[in-house]
Design brief:
The structure is a homodimer. By secondary structure, chain A is an alpha/beta fold. In chain A, 35% of the residues lie in helices and 13% in strands. Chain A folds into three domains: 9-111, Chitobiase, domain 2, CATH 3.30.379; 118-413 and 427-436, Glycosidases (TIM Barrel); 473-630, Alpha-glucuronidase, C-terminal domain (Alpha-d-glucuronidase, C-terminal Domain, Alpha-Beta Complex), CATH 3.90.1330.10. In chain A, the strands form five sheets. Chain A has an eight-stranded parallel β-barrel. In chain A, strands 2-1-3-5-4-6 form a six-stranded mixed sheet. In chain A, helix 3 packs across helix 11, helix 11 crosses helix 12 (438-449) and helix 14 (468-475) packs across helix 17. Chain A binds chain B through residues 130-131, 304-305, 488, 493-497, 500, 509-512, 620-621, 624-625, 627-631, 641, and chain B through 130-131, 304-305, 488, 493-497, 500, 509-512, 620-621, 624-625, 627-631, 641.
């Protein structure tokens, strides 16, 4: 059976031993009662339903202020009597998990999510792709939903998964890969029963189910076109959607990656992306469904010789003319950065440039470019910086909702690396409340995941994880330049791997300097796409944050950064430091042997060996590459090969 | 049906219209008679068997001098009466194809092959590998022998193939990939019937059939070890081999890639490669079979930081201590160069260093590193230089036999690129007679393949193909340094693609210079492994042939080559010239539209578009890479990106 992650039975100890009253009716209230009864069966106490009777220690019920919204709740506590009130059953469910997470006395008040939808996108395929495997960019084994081309039907496991998701605040899932292959295109039609069965499990935990669909679905099902302007195409989507809702009444909607990296889209028919998205939106609207339309559109057949084209501008240039043209039930789903989930990028300029469009900000919990769940890389600090706007516009102010690519699979620890569970947990928690401190979220996760953790373990986990993203950044691509990974699988260093390709991801390193000139004055103009004051800040090499120096500027190796050192010495220093920090993580972990279940301890230990090896490889390749190019020796005389 | 390649019906026109006598008996004599009768049915004339009767125009029969050997023949012609004599039927078969190729009057004399075996190795799998496809490093479609995991059983096609092979002089084939996977390991046992069926076809054309086997075959078939010293293992090989010969009496033997790139081998059991090879040799010896033991052994987990290790030395260091330790029926199969079939390498030093061992020199007809049958690259000039010893020891003097990796598949043109047929033809012809001129061999091929070709077509083919290998060399990796290809699939440029990997294939380019120091004085010592005068020549940067300058030396960009220019200017000049020559090839081909069958014309035309595109990509990437590193502008001011 799977690891319990952040919901081990012990997490419910504080709930048990009490007399609990639950009022209200409906599926989610039943779920709350089931959960509480299970806790009482283990730790004592009892659950009574309905109003009246003698006083209770814990009282959950409807009747909260409508202003709490569909998921909010109010928590009051006095004299060991705790009252949870919500306007709707979904709020009761969240409130109950709040008590599990944080206990009752510690945090009374009113709670509601920052955005109405916090979605998790699975990039699962039904079939196993010969190169990508079953889960595209998945580092935690196969799919939880399908196996050998058929539904896996391990519903107890999906139930355990749904509980984990709702407990951290997620309320929507997409089941299948945005790259929709032939088999998966049938989930919308012939194989809808498989979707309905999973939706039934997620529904019990307040999670709505969505599907990735192919824009070419009408053609795959026999029409000769998928043109949004064709009446037969409109009819196909309408009638198909009617059938979907007849089977799954609370179906969430469609996710579409169109005209991107080879996926079909409205361009095929000379239509705009608004035409394409609205086609699906109109079919979904009568049923309350939404379209998630990905903005990941760029020319993936770029000529590396042409420095005038900039992938970082592509989505901005493409979508801003269509602001206001999308239906209300369209969510434009935009990756947090303008490139592709690098360890360091500025915010995507598009996100702040679509005031008349619902924008969903997309994060990547799966660690495609951040260590692939072989490296410890706690991502909440990165997301938090982006949401709060440390080095750019605060994304929390522009996001109508949050989306993330899942990092889970059929691995017994759910996420491959046991410590990568914290990323999924943190995504849910920050989606609910973007103002949370990453270290506080980690602390919650530690408390739940390692019940009764002694201070030594807690301290070690903070020491290993709190700054692990910055450590990863230090030993990989420097100063925001990104993409120095091995093409294809994206693991490990290859400085020139993408430099002369069609993918639009360059660093322009030569014997004099490195970085991409994205200034308005002399470069691609990308810096000018940002709202004030950021356009001005990014434009100037003296004001631009060092973290993004090479993202926006081509700088001489001897350029002095705002932090004081030269570019070349920063590269050397950061890489020696990052690799040393990885080694220190391993040492810290060795100190907690015996404080962690043996299988989990061993798994992490083995992965830390790989992380140390990989960090040293990054250090040596990056340092050697830039030493060979620049000819500048390390000021501290350390070994560069 | 397949293209006729170099045996179109018209090739037999000169044979027909005559009275032909054939004497002698046996399978191969029957084949000769069948071939001649087919020609006469089409072009007139008749074939009579047995001695006596009225005089004939063409008289084929046994009775030649024993010194002709098993495959030799003697050709005399007087007064329009041609006599072909051989000591054995196999010689008659070769002699008949000689007449097809060259006509009778033009070339009387005594002919026998330079080496007794000219083998063609197929890297075919029964199953389709998810990454490699069915034919490893195959660029001509799937296997001719298997399809969908089962024997293809297209015996007419295999018959046509066997005719093509014997007509150019090949007399042995290995059916399956040297990387032996689980399914293919069963060809030796459960699936031997499939091999026997194919062997039956090849036998009719004087070609013996061999199999690649896994050194771990005993384990794959249920033993707990494959240790050469274990009596059960010896017995397993003996009894398995008895069974093979009971089914295929003229079976050729086993080909083994052991302890190489992850394949199992004797090292697993602490035994030497002589122990391993002799184990199989002893099993084969009673039946007249041979072991081909590949010398492609190197550390494919090398640390790029360690410049003391040199893959180019690996086979030499590994095998020379075992010279004399191999059984007589072991052939040590050595790739022609010390690395891996690059467009330019010196001869492998091992080949000249095993006087007490039968050495088979291996060429690669499949164009893994020479354009993958999307580029015209006529390889005979390269092989000819190596065989004759233009820039190193003459391999023809050390080779006990020749082996080559096939470039054929189920493509209608056999080889993907129609002009790549010439490489297979030339391999067979040079294997028979290494002194042949590549341009003369090409001329033979043109005469046969394009019957009645007008001078314009013949001239165009020579213009396109004669120097195409040097053109390819010019626009790819410079001056013998090799390996600047995209990792994995090996197509197209990626200068640093292998530079920081474990594969041992480096160029060491930095801002001052490029190349690998393999001198004895300051480098890995590889230059010193060659016989005189080559060790001395290679050691000196002033004497070393320019073609190999960066293979043996790390040279400053401003080093003046023996040809007169600097290293950096040579790089620029060669790449501009190579890409221009590719464009000229395309222009020449356009001029022969209408002189070539339309499908063949179109296929070549499309591929030349790709070759021109690819050559420009090579030119620009290589030039940009070295300009960025060296900072030296092109002396002729051409555009470098």
């Amino acid at each position: 059976m799977n690891d319990a992650a952040w919901l081990p039975p012990e997490a419910w100890r504080a709930i048990g031993g009490r007399r609990i009253r639950v009022t209200g009716r409906g599926l989610l209230v039943d779920t709350v009662v089931d959960e509480l009864r299970r806790a009482c069966a283990r730790f004592g106490g009892e659950v009574v339903r309905g109003p009246g009777g003698k006083p209770c220690d814990l009282d959950l019920g409807l009747g909260g202020d409508d202003a709490l919204g569909p998921e909010g709740y109010e928590l009051t506590a006095a004299d060991e009597h705790t009252v949870l009130r919500a306007a709707h059953p979904h709020g009761l469910l969240h409130g109950m998990f709040h008590l599990v997470r944080l206990g009752d006395a510690s945090s009374t008040g009113t709670f509601r999510p920052a955005v109405p939808r916090r979605m998790l996108d699975h990039w699962d395929n039904v079939d196993v792709h010969p190169v990508m495997g079953q889960v595209e960019r998945g580092y935690a084994g196969g799919s939880l939903f399908w196996h050998n081309g058929a539904p896996r039907r391990d519903l107890p496991r999906v139930t355990a998964y749904a509980r984990l998701l709702t407990a951290c605040g997620i309320n929507a899932v997409t089941l299948n890969n945005v790259n929709v292959h032939a088999t998966e295109a049938r989930l919308l039609t012939d194989r809808l029963g498989e979707v309905a069965e999973l939706a039934g499990v997620f529904r019990r935990y307040g999670i709505r189910t969505h599907l990735s669909v192919s824009f070419a679905a009408p053609v795959l099902h026999g029409l000769d076109t998928a043109d949004p302007a064709d009446e037969r195409v409109r009819h196909w989507w309408e009638s198909t959607t009617v059938d979907v809702y007849a089977t799954i009444p609370d179906f969430g909607g469609y996710l579409v990656k169109a005209d991107s990296e080879g996926q079909p889209g409205p361009f095929t028919y000379g239509r705009s992306h608004a035409d394409g998205a609205n086609l699906l939106a109109d079919a979904l609207a009568p049923h309350g469904g939404v379209v998630h339309w990905r903005a990941f559109v760029y020319n993936h057949r770029q000529d590396w010789r042409d420095r005038g084209v900039d992938r970082a501008r592509a989505a901005f240039d493409h979508f801003t003319p269509h602001d206001g043209a999308f239906r209300e039930n369209v969510v434009l789903q935009v990756k947090h950065g303008p490139m592709d989930f690098q360890a360091r990028e500025p915010a995507a300029p598009l996100i702040a440039a679509m005031p008349a469009t619902r924008v969903g900000v997309e994060f990547q919990v799966t660690q495609e470019y951040t260590g692939q769940q072989r490296h410890v890389c706690y991502l909440a600090p990165m997301w938090s910086e982006l949401l709060r706007g440390v080095h750019g516009p605060a994304l929390a102010g522009f996001a109508a909702e949050f989306v993330a690519v899942a990092n889970t699979g059929d691995d017994p620890f759910w996420t491959g690396h046991p410590l990568a569970q914290a990323n999924l947990y943190a995504y849910g928690r920050l989606g609910w409340n973007p103002a949370l401190e990453p270290a506080a979220v980690l602390d919650e996760w530690v408390t739940l995941t390692f019940p009764g953790a002694p201070a030594r373990l807690r301290d070690a986990l903070h020491a290993i994880m709190d700054d692990s993203w910055r450590t990863y950044e230090r030993y990989t691509a420097p100063l925001g330049v990104g993409f120095m990974v091995r093409p294809g699988h994206h693991y490990g260093p290859d400085v020139d791997g993408y430099e002369y390709t069609r993918w639009g991801t360059y660093h322009h390193a030569d014997r004099d300097g490195v970085g991409v000139d994205r200034t308005v004055a002399t470069g691609t103009g990308c810096a000018g796409l940002y709202p004030p004051p950021w356009a001005r800040i990014y434009e100037s090499p003296d004001e631009c944050p060092d973290e993004l120096a090479l993202f926006f500027h081509h700088l001489p190796y001897q350029h002095v950064l705002t932090g004081g050192g030269t570019v070349i010495q920063h590269i050397y220093d950061a890489h020696f430091a990052g690799a040393r920090e990885a080694a220190e993580m391993r040492e810290r972990w060795a100190e907690v042997a015996g404080l962690v279940p043996p299988e989990k301890y061993e798994r992490v230990r083995e992965l830390l060996d790989e992380q140390v090896r990989s960090a040293e490889e990054w250090r040596d390749q990056i340092n050697t590459y830039f030493f060979r190019k620049s000819g500048v020796p390390d000021a501290k005389g350390r070994r560069i090969h």
